[in-house]
Design a protein that fits this description.
18 helices, single chain, about 525 residues
């Protein structure tokens, strides 16, 4: 097994220390990576699973527009809220142990989501899924850092991990479409149960256990401060999405930022902090986090709009719409696998910048929807370019973040990488979704006939998916006007994404131009330890 010999640590009876930390991984390690890929796919799947199911949810559970947003992104926000805590907890109690506990909780929460009978129940289930997922993400990434001692193999392992996560995100609409054709919207959640069962059986055989040596106690005050920083900010963003800027939303954001300031000050004073702030002194670490965060903001919001466009404007069934998402998925997988290989010969900053430049072109293609519907082909082509950038930044960004940190800080670095990605997707859904909704409402409200009934007036004025639920009650031509208003909002969101991603490309080219594979942290790997 590829771990350095350390006399202060005790090995699990299933793993032995090699003579050199540079020993390349064998079949057992790669099988362990394959096992870690299973929960990784599930995590990505749950981020996008409900995009195609939203119209069905509107009919079945009758959520308000605010509840619909909570259903979509409560999962990602709760992940972001608990990732830092769970990443540090795994270093203390054992990364494999935390992985198995979190996987079991994930299966239970998935079953609750599948059986939800109201919008509130589904929101709660998605929140519980997010907390459980927060235990899985840093555990899988940190275990990869333990499994692979060879730097190039470790970089490829991170690339494969990012590809599987991105694959799960891309697979969500397709799986949702297939299952919606045959079953009800909640059936897709039950996929987690057999996957978790397999993980529980094979993890003790294929995965090492690791606990950080001499780790201190978990600082509960820091845990409270981290949640106090994240949750008010989440609430403030939600209120802005619902009612715009107001005293309540501004107050929530101020409270969150105050807690964040106190949290940072406390981490700098602690000998064993929940989050090691010294990690941010590394330029590659900090810039890669910025690219991951804002790159995922663009993808998260646009993904929701693309899936709604295919169903509500083009009129595709969930299955057909899911199949149309196949080309973007292939583009993402290709980028995630090839980007780490290209980065062996071209500096990672230039690879990231080039991929983001292509993504910006894709978002500009999507922005052309406002002048009329060019059809699904142009939409899918543009989104494929966007996903090409996603696959690249997910693979190389993760490697830059985790690879820049000492291995004994892999849990914290992994948590920060995942926090940036998941928060980015959720903020993208909230911000870009709210922008598209605002443009939609401003466009459609002036076109509603006075004779329209109160229920239909409220539905059409709320959103396109709400208008679709009362389409049979609408006068001729009004649904077409609602679709045109939706495309205007879609175009505005895509244009904002294009500009932001183009700026990220410049940032990556300038600030990461000196970063090469050999520049990242090459600290020796600590050995795996068993539970006492």
């Amino acid at each position: 097994m590829a771990f350095q010999d350390d006399p202060e640590l005790q090995f699990s009876k299933d793993f032995e220390a090699p003579a050199s930390p540079a020993v390349r991984a064998g079949a057992r390690e790669w099988l362990g990576l394959a096992l870690l890929a299973l929960p990784t796919v599930l995590l990505g799947l749950d981020l996008t699973l409900l995009h195609l199911a939203l119209p069905a949810l509107a009919v079945d559970l009758q959520p308000t527009s605010t509840q619909a947003l909570w259903i979509m992104d409560a999962y990602g926000f709760l992940i972001a809220g608990f990732l830092i805590t769970m990443g540090t907890l795994g270093d203390r109690i054992g990364r494999r142990k935390l992985l198995m506990i979190g996987a079991s909780a994930f299966a239970v929460a998935s079953t609750l989501a599948a059986l939800s009978t109201s919008a509130v129940m589904l929101i709660v289930a998605r929140a519980l899924l997010g907390i459980a997922a927060a235990t899985l993400m840093p555990s899988t990434l940190a275990l990869i850092a333990n499994i692979f001692a060879d730097p190039r193999q470790r970089a490829l392992g991170f690339g494969i991990w990012a590809t599987m996560f991105a694959f799960g995100m891309a697979l969500g609409p397709i799986v949702g479409g297939v299952l919606l054709e045959q079953f009800w919207w909640g059936a897709a959640f039950l996929l987690a149960v057999p996957v978790v069962g397999l993980l529980i059986v094979l993890a003790p055989v294929l995965l090492p256990e690791y606990r950080a040596p001499n780790a201190g106690r978990l600082d509960l005050a820091s845990v409270v401060l981290s949640l106090g920083a994240m949750l008010p900010v989440v609430y403030g963003v939600k209120q802005i999405a619902k009612d715009g800027l107001g005293p309540e939303s501004i107050g929530a954001l101020v409270v969150g930022f105050v807690f964040a300031w106190v949290f940072v000050r406390r981490q700098r004073r602690l000998a064993d902090p929940l989050l090691d702030m010294s990690l941010f002194a590394d330029r590659a670490f900090s810039v890669a986090l910025i690219v991951l965060l804002f790159g995922l903001v663009a993808v998260g919001g646009t993904m929701l709009l693309v899936t709604q466009y295919l169903q509500l404007v083009m009129g595709f069934s969930p299955l057909v719409a899911g199949l149309w998402m196949g080309p973007p998925a292939l583009a993402m997988i290709a980028a995630g696998v090839t980007a780490p290989l290209i980065a062996r010969y071209v500096r990672p900053g230039y690879v990231v910048a080039g991929a983001l430049g292509l993504s910006a072109v894709g978002y500009l293609m999507l922005a052309q929807l406002g002048g009329g519907a060019p059809g699904a082909a142009l939409v899918v082509a543009g989104f494929s370019l966007a996903y090409l950038g996603l696959g690249t930044i997910a693979a190389l960004g993760t490697d830059l973040v985790v690879g820049s940190a000492p291995v004994d800080k892999a849990g914290s670095a992994s948590a920060m990488s995942e926090t940036a990605q998941d928060l980015g997707i959720s903020v993208g859904i909230a911000v870009l979704g709210s922008l598209a909704t605002a443009v939609y409402r401003r466009t459609i409200l002036d076109q509603l006939p006075e004779a329209l009934g109160q229920t239909a007036h409220k539905a059409v004025g709320d959103s396109l998916w709400a208008a679709s639920s009362v389409a049979s009650e609408l006068p001729p031509g009004l649904m077409a006007k609602a679709q045109a208003a939706f495309m205007a909002g879609f175009s505005a969101a895509a244009l904002v994404s294009a500009v932001s991603v183009a700026l990220l490309a410049v940032l990556a080219a300038v600030l990461l131009r000196h970063v090469g594979q050999g520049d990242r942290h090459e600290a020796a790997l600590p050995s795996a330890v068993s539970d006492p």
